[in-house]
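In response to reviewer comment 3 from the previous cycle, which asked for concrete evidence that the modeling workflow produces usable outputs, we include below a single protein chain processed end to end. The sequence was submitted unchanged, and the resulting structure tokens are shown without manual editing.
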Amino acid sequence: MFPGSTGQRVATDRGEVAVSVGGSGPPVLLLHGYPQNRLMWTALAGRLTDRYTVVAADLPGYGGSFRPAPSPDHLPHSKRALALDLVQAMAALGHERFAVCGHDRGGRIAYRMALDHPDHVSAVAVLDVVPTGEVWSRADAQLALLYWHWGFLAQPAPLPERMIGADPDAFFDLHVRRLGLGMAPGRYPPEVMAAYRRELDDPRVVEAICEDYRAGAGVDREHDDADRQQGRRIGCPLLVLWAGRGALPRLYGDVVDVWRPWATDVRGFGVDAGHFLAEDQPDVVAGHLTELLDPPGAVTTPAAGPIGTHASRSTR
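The workflow returned the following structure tokens.
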């Protein structure tokens, strides 16, 4: 997948997780978002392997990983359940403590992992997300139009599954690509775009996608709301990166301010990119990750390339 990496299938309690592993040094877990797979990290991972052991995983439900069996409460697809799967996968690879970076739905698993498994997560980065509970509590007409797929994919089965399955090409071209996938010139090889498109040809992947969003509208939101009520916070360093040309600045203004109640040490930056910022701007994102992951006092490589106008850090 990325230079020097090897593909593996790692056993967890619920099934096997497909990963690519390469590099050497402290471990970093990379989690993709909707509706992709671990190929999204190809360019960025190669910028980290000289300093870190990089593990890029297919989320359960996607790619080569196992497909959780749905249940009426959607718990098998909750971010809590998926986070546990991936903690177990990292342990099976010999990594009891590691940093994690997630984009989109992977970002939601990453911050849930930091909340639920603080002894295993040394640092966390989330790309172009705010907490799921915040999305729903702040929902308005603008969100309904920009994030319309949240409500659509969360509809009871089998409505969204059947509509996507009726014309997956139209769903991919008229929705997924309009989110910004494939827009940056030279960043999206045709074979990678074809692999993303093929995800929608597997009815069990489509089912997993919809179950993920159903969990987000229900049990994930409940977990987030319970944490806020109980005052639970992410204790390790949290890096928040967002697309400067994406939806988050329009919806939330100061994105870091949304995250401040959720973590004791949060820093954030806007990146001059669309939603798929790790592929649009791999050098910039890798630079910020390196600054997060290197221990205090270490010599770091500054992030290169255009950065958004907002940068903020809060330690409480």
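The chain has one domain: 6-315. We consider this sufficient to address the reviewer's concern, and the full set will be provided in the supplementary archive.
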